[in-house]
Design brief:
- This protein is α/β, with parallel strands linked by helices.
- The chain folds into 4 domains: 224 residues, Rossmann fold (3-Layer(aba) Sandwich); 80 residues, Beta Barrel (Elongation Factor Tu (Ef-tu), domain 3); 108 residues, Elongation Factor Tu (Ef-tu), domain 3, CATH 2.40.30; 180 residues, Rossmann fold (3-Layer(aba) Sandwich).
- The protein is built from 19 helices and 28 strands.
- The strands form 5 sheets. Strands 7-15-11-12-14-9-8 form a 7-stranded antiparallel β-sheet, with no helix packed on it.
């Protein structure tokens, strides 16, 4: 490897010292597929002489086998490491590469151009200081250019280079460049991107990549590399208030208790007064502990362990903040969301939210709007599909410490995770807390659930009966309630059809409406339990995610899932209401078992096989279960 610095050969220690003192710029390349992102990075690596001799030899062989440059070195192959990428000539994953010059160190993320891999691009942009948005001079601004630019803006990347690539393919025509520059200026203004530099380049030929080209005498700006070497880097601002999310509670022995994490902003020193959020407990920093010894001060970006002067309760996910300028806490927010899953977002379905080190259960509302990538207009919608970007309110099951993403990337960003598959389905940014989350507080009540249940001689619970339409849920629930009533027990029966005549009459049968249907009935069942009642719920509730949400809301041990297990052919043969016949004829869309799936419980508390057993017999199974679990006094 022939690096630009001669110090490598002459004085390696001096070189290493100078290398350690260089600033680091993290940047991302993005744009539509086949715009030349990988070739541009390859050109930077090649011209910066950051390629070993054996890599050059391998590149020469790979260029003959996989290359698209007619036998010349295909510099894109330096970055496209995955076999599938080489065969298809595209980038699928995010490829990170390190290189340096005498003036600066760089980490570059080469991200995919294909629309289905937009989530990978968002991952790369989340840590970038600068974005190179690449546009093919022959094609101009495309939908994916707009999408990537918006994501760059959302993720707080302040500096953008518009690299108009393949200028050699348009004979270095200045008019082509100026037209694209003008078109992108309108997009940048719409997204609030103020620091944009347009550079005409040919990654394949090297024009204006590391040095200015004679082919573009009309361009008077810096080369791409010169700009990357000199652009101002805004690091973490130590003048901001101190915040450190707690990653780990360090207890190596009984004499030491420290709280480890990476400082998100500000500075801290022994004696600094701090507030633990969301609890609000106050203390002061006793020590700043690192592997190399205690520090007198620590600033943003450093990973440290803090010990506190007082015995206060601190857990993973809490935030240690400056006592005189703490961040906010809330449990309801307006957010911007980039949906990443092939399955659309389901409003009212519960997801796991990971924000920094804090994890909570998140319920998104119906999106306020999504953004059309062609017109940039706001569109009314009920859901977000893969790669769509929208604004959506969310509610959490507990308060978290936060700051708007525009102020603090660490405390303002989050991801959403599917609770069943553990797939990361979305990335989001907090815009602000909703006012109602600050104005509404839980009221302490003198009479609680236990007191209400005691005078009834029973333990409140929810018997959640799920199964296909026609399985016999309502029939069995009626028999159970009659038997409980005869035993002088206090009950309420919540039937799916009945509630759709009142509380849920505004809901249809889409996946989103079904999720909201179950959320509402779960809240009602919880209220009935607060009154000390035994709630019987008879709902098809076809999706495991919503039943799991109901279990979480009502509480483990109080939620009794009863699977009324009736084969589809048996339920269809009964067809008391004639619904299956209409569904088969296409008159009822989204009908469970026909045009919409039913996800059977995997581990229900009770499984009732209805074929060959009467409702009376099945009801007795439920009563026996309640007796054995002490929900009923014998």
């Amino acid at each position: 490897m022939a690096h630009q610095s001669a110090l490598i050969a002459e004085d390696i220690e001096s070189y290493l010292q100078s290398h350690a003192a260089k600033g680091l710029l993290r940047f991302i390349t993005c744009g539509s597929v086949d715009d030349g992102k990988s070739t541009l990075i390859g050109r930077l690596l090649y011209d910066s002489k950051m390629i070993f001799d054996d890599q050059l030899s391998a590149l020469a062989g790979d260029s003959k086998k996989f290359g698209t440059t007619g036998g010349e070195l295909d510099l894109a192959l330096l970055v496209d490491g995955l076999a599938a990428e080489r065969e298809q000539g595209i980038t699928i994953d995010v490829a990170y590469r390190f290189f340096s010059t005498d003036r600066r160190k760089f980490i570059v993320a080469d991200t995919p151009g294909h629309e289905q891999y937009t989530r990978n691009m968002a991952t790369g942009a989340s840590m970038a200081d600068l974005a190179i948005v690449i546009v093919d001079a022959r094609k101009g601004i495309l939908t994916q250019t707009r999408r990537h630019s918006m994501i760059v803006s959302m993720l707080g990347v302040k500096r953008v280079v518009l690299a108009v690539n393949k200028m050699d393919m348009v004979i270095y025509d200045e008019k082509v460049f100026r037209r694209i520059e003008k078109d992108y200026a309108e997009i940048a203004a719409a997204f609030g991107l103020k620091d944009v530099l347009a550079i005409p380049v040919s990654a394949l030929r090297g024009d204006n990549v590391t040095a200015l080209s004679e082919n573009t005498p009309w361009y008077e700006g810096p080369s791409l590399l010169e700009h990357l070497e000199t652009v101002e880097i805004h690091g973490q601002d130590s003048s901001l208030p101190f915040r450190m999310p707690v990653q780990w509670v360090n207890r190596p022995n009984a004499d030491f208790r420290g709280f480890a994490g990476r400082i998100a902003s500000g500075a801290v020193a022994p004696g600094t007064r701090v507030k633990i959020l969301p609890s609000g407990k106050l203390s002061s920093v006793a020590r700043i502990v690192t592997y190399d010894g205690d520090l007198e001060e620590s600033t943003a970006g450093q990973s440290v362990t803090l010990t506190l002067a007082d015995e206060v309760d601190v857990s993973r996910g809490d935030v240690i903040a400056a006592a005189d300028a703490p961040c906010e806490i809330a449990d309801q927010f307006e957010t911007r969301i980039i949906w990443m899953s092939e399955k659309p977002m389901v409003a009212s379905r519960q997801y796991l939210l990971q924000s920094g080190t804090a994890r909570s259960i998140c319920t998104p509302a119906k999106p306020k709007y999504r953004i059309d990538m062609q017109t940039l207009e706001h569109e009314v919608c009920k859901t977000l599909a893969m790669n769509e970007i929208g604004v959506c309110d969310i509610a959490l099951d507990r308060k978290i410490a936060f700051e708007p993403y525009a102020l603090n990337r660490t405390l303002g960003a989050f991801i959403l995770i599917d609770r069943l598959t553990h797939e990361t389905v979305a990335a989001g940014m907090i815009t602000h807390a909703l006012r109602r989350s600050q104005n509404v507080h839980l009221q302490d009540l003198s009479v609680d659930q236990a007191a209400r249940a005691a005078i009834k001689g029973q333990k409140p619970c929810t018997i959640w009966m799920t199964g296909l339409s026609g399985a016999g849920k309502s029939t069995i629930a009626n028999v159970v309630e009659k038997k409980l009533n005869a035993m002088a027990k206090h009950t309420v029966l919540l039937d799916g059809d009945n509630l759709r005549h009142g509380l849920n009459k505004d809901l249809g049968f889409t996946e989103q409406d079904r999720a909201e249907n179950i959320r509402r009935v779960a809240e009602v069942a919880k209220l009935m339990m607060e009154a000390g009642l035994i709630a019987l719920v008879s709902f098809i509730s076809p999706f495991r995610a919503e039943r799991e949400m109901a279990r979480e809301l009502i509480g483990e041990g109080r939620f009794i899932e009863v699977f009324v297990d009736t084969p589809l052919q048996e339920a269809e043969a009964r067809d008391v209401k004639g619904l299956y016949k209409k569904a088969r004829a296409g008159e009822i869309p989204n009908f469970t078992g026909i045009s919409s799936p039913y996800e059977a419980p995997e581990n229900p508390e009770l499984r009732l096989e209805t074929v060959g057993q009467s409702p009376e017999e099945l009801a007795e199974e439920i009563l026996e279960f309640l007796m054995n679990r002490d929900f009923l006094s014998r």
